[in-house]
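Subject: for your reference before the review

Hello V.,

The reviewers asked for a structural picture of the protein, and I figured it would be easier to keep everything in one thread rather than splitting it across files. Below is the amino acid sequence we used in the manuscript, unchanged from the supplementary table.
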Amino acid sequence: MPRISARIASIAESATLKVDAKAKQLKTEGVDVIGFAAGEPDFPTPAHIVAAAEAAVRDPRNYHYTPSSGLPDLREAIVRKTARDSGLTVEPSQVIVTNGGKQAVYETFATLLDPGDEVIVPAPYWTTYPEAIRLAGGVTVPVFAGAEAGYLATIAQLEASVTPRTKALLFVSPSNPTGAVYSAEQTAAIAAWADSHDLWIIADEIYQNLTYDGGSATSIASVAPKTSLDRIVLLNGVAKTYAMTGWRLGWAVGPLDFIKAAGNLQSHLTSNVSNISQRAAVVALDGTQEPVEEMRLAFDRRRHLIVDLLRSIPEVVLPMPGGAFYAYPDVRGLLGRTWSGVQVDTSLQLADLLLDKARVAVVPGEAFGEGGYLRLSYALGDDQLVEGAQRIVDFFAKG
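And here is what came back from the structure prediction:
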């Protein structure tokens, strides 16, 4: 008998974390590597949130088990945040607090899918989605939209992907890895289309507060037909908006029967999230949002810096990202050629070569559903961002 189950053996390591870990290992060895791999803000968690955590550490209430689905105070804060930013009114009983956004993703698919159920997933997609679907016994049906389409899937593409086994649509706006943002009209049309097929909609809104150029991310729940609201799950967390990736605090909002079932799973899987992180998250959601705006403005500045530099490479096609903090250049024009004496035919090879020769860590498009692209996170300091992007420009200029 095999030592490792086939189910777990089939799951690939997170490509983004793998590249980031390799870059960090090189740094510990004294190699001057600039990492664009991890989607992690370089800012410290805002001081008033840290102060709330410090107070929580000293409060004996937080030394014990608490409700596995989340502290009542935090579930109520998430209700307020959902109304404020997603335009959806829910009850605290419709919220489950999870150990980071990834757990919310995993539990959602585990709760909804039976073996063979299909989930339509617009691509490029975040690396964790198909693995979480596979763990739940489901099947990922990718719908690819490239740079020429602004990385936005169309209704016609979605319609062509529906089968009798389709149970859900995954909707992500702003997108990781592309930064693409669907307009309010596009979002409403997709919601109506999903409703016409009686599909569940799983909307990952983790980047909803990071949009630019005066735009906003329309929550699909706010424009969906009322008949579909009992089939919508919103996923979110504090990691990206509040620079709290290490605090491991996410959540899901959905119908009561879904939340109850997910809560049963979590009661056996992890029980409650760290009470310290939960107390801090209450203050993050309900407190001043000025630090969030300061970070957003910094990301916006960095967005223009990296896009301008990468667009200076003649063969690169790069739509301006409307949200999140990722640039996703189409590098197909750089493939099938020799760079630094090496024949490069795939974006995977190109990413390896950039790390080896230019000392820049990027994630290849193969990790997000289709090769020919690179993902660069611009959630790092301005100086490092410019230096790293310039290294890439110089690398291709030398041939």
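For the response letter, the relevant points are probably these. The longest strand covers residues 166-172. The chain has two domains: 6-45+291-398, 62-286.

Happy to draft the paragraph if you're swamped.

O.
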